[in-house]
Each structure stands twice: as C-alpha cells, then as structure tokens.
Amino acid sequence: MPPFCVLLKRAVDRGRREVSRCAVYRSASRGLVARRSRSAALLTSLLEYSVVLFSAGSTVSMVAYFTKFSATFLYLFSEWA
User: Fold this and answer.
1) Per-10-residue mean pLDDT, the chain, length 81
2) 3-state secondary structure labels for all residues of 12-50
3) Cβ atoms 7, 52 nearer than 8 A
4) DSSP state of 16
5) In contact, 63 and 22? CB cutoff 8 Å
6) Which residue in 50, 52, 43 sits closest to 5, CA to CA?
7) Keywords in UniProt for this one (predicted)?
C-alpha cells in the first residue's frame, strides 16, 4: 500500500474517532462547548485530509516529472546510439 494511502487511512480513522467522541460529548452536555469541540475535530480532520492529498499530489507530480525525464533521456540516447 502506498505511503499516502496509509496516511489517508490513519487520518480518516482519527477523524471518525474524534467525531464520534465529540458526538457522545454533545449528547451528554448539549452545550455550545460540545458544538465547538465537534467543529474543531472536523476542521482538524479536514486539515489532515488536505495535507495527505497535497503530499499525494506532490508524489504524483514527481513521478510524472521523472517519467518525462526518463523518456527524454531514452529518446536522446536512442538517437545518439
């Protein structure tokens, strides 16, 4: 499994735990603090998703750049040989 998939799975699991924990807290207290806590958990989870997706995008762009560089090198080498 690629590293960014592992990170994404961890972020999803952590976000689910936070949201469920905050939902229990909200049902117990029914207050503004619980809503803020749930919002903070969702915001944290969203931030983790964006970091994981950014790192995945960076990995994909690096692979694309390397593939383009390799193709150019192979073309030049075949012309020279």
Assistant:
1) 63 64 52 56 68 68 71 69 54
2) HHHHHHHHHHHHHHHHHHCCHHHHHHHHHHHHHHHHHHH
3) yes
4) H
5) no
6) 52
7) Membrane, Transmembrane, Transmembrane helix
Which residue from 15, 39, 35 is spatially nearest to 27, judged by alpha carbons? 35
Residues of the domain holding 68: 3-80
Tokens of 32: 């503004």
d(CA 62, CA 3): 15
CB count within 10 Å of CB 62 equals 10
Q: Which amino acid is at 48?
A: E
pTM above 0.85, yes or no: no
Cα(15)–Cα(61) distance, integer angstroms: 27
What is the number of domains present in the chain? 1
